[in-house]
Amino acid sequence: MRPLHSDQPGDERARRSEAEPSPPPSLDTPHPQSDLPDSPQLGNEEPKQPVKKVKAGRNLPAAIITGVVLGAVILGSLLIQPIVFLGVAGVAVAVGTWELATAMRKAGKNVPVVPLAVGAVIVLALTWFGGGNALMLSIGLVVAALFIWRLGEGATGYHIDLPASVLVAVYVPFLGGFAMLIASAEDGAWRVIAMLLMVVLSDTGGYVAGVFFGKHPMAPRISPKKSWEGLFGSVAASSLGGALALWLLFEVDVWMGLAVGVSIALAGTLGDLTESLIKRDLGIKDMSNLIPGHGGLMDRLDSILMAAPVAFIWFWYLLGLAGDLCLFESIDSSDLVTQRWEPGTCGGL
């Protein structure tokens, strides 16, 4: 009689096959009752569509709208009442000073933000009412105050913090003070308009020429997008616009107007490169995101600040159109409470 259970190898293999679970179905074998497509195998995925890169650059529509609004505010302040322009310029210089000082602090430089912003407004106000003497005196006092302020912070970082603070004071309120010297003349509103027109034309001409024709980088280590073709566009637009504006407004010789426009374009370009170098050193793209399409206010003021002293030199020394510089002349204290002087007095109003 045969036993119910056998120890033969075949029976043992049968018992093991019943006890072990069946392996999972292969990914290569479709389910017999499924109409779904086969699962993709690893390494055989369809290539992904390349992600479209967004071209970096200025938000042109926002930049145009913002530029028109800012231009209307400046033009309105100049034409309504010159003293209103002092308020607009004071706010602009204070904000620009705040942006630059804040960027310095974020980069590890101990720069006093609020004292510099307040000092910038004081410099512009004293320059408006006191002329060139007041500009030199006020900026000197601001720099001296920075020396005194830094004494209480100890020796650590002194050689970094103090030069950075002085740079902010000289770059923004001091250069901005030359715009006040131009505006304080009897027909200063039109002089400022002429200067701003040349700066705007320089920026616009450089942008258009650079976009359509720019092939040869001008300063790749500072501003890679600037090209020699863009510089030529800046010079051409500023010189032509300057010649026309100065001839219509002040009957300046056309050739002299062309020279003024060329110098304003070069100064504005140097101002733009200077700010680009500062931003590259600080590791930032824009001074702030305050103005849509432009970045920070300093990103708009950089060209104007460098062009203002050049325009003042042309108006005062060469063209005889600016008011008295009033350097090293006595200032009547009673004039400080008035808004206007007679032509030829300190301030040239």
How far apart the termini lie comes to: 135 Å
Silhouette: globular
Q: Could you estimate the helical fraction of the residues in percent?
A: 55-70%
Oligomerization:
single chain
Order of H and E elements:
HHHHHHEEHHH
Q: Which percent range describes the beta-strand content? A: under 5%
Overall mean pLDDT score? 80
Helix/strand class: mainly alpha
Biggest sheet strand order reads 1-2
What is the count of structural domains? 2
Unreliable segments of 5+ consecutive residues: 1-10, 25-43, 49-57, 321-325, 327-349
Number of DSSP-assigned strands: 2
Q: Give the biggest beta sheet.
A: 2 strands, antiparallel
Indicate the radius of gyration in whole angstroms: 34 Å
Number of helices: 9
Structure explained in plain terms:
This protein has helices spanning 9-19, 60-80, 82-106, 113-151, 158-183, 188-213, 228-250, 254-282, 298-318, and strands at residues 217-219, 223-227. It is mostly helical. Strands 1-2 form a two-stranded antiparallel sheet. Pfam families: CTP_transf_1. Residues 1-19 have a biased composition (Basic and acidic residues). It catalyses: a 1,2-diacyl-sn-glycero-3-phosphate + CTP + H(+) = a CDP-1,2-diacyl-sn-glycerol + diphosphate. Its EC number is 2.7.7.41.
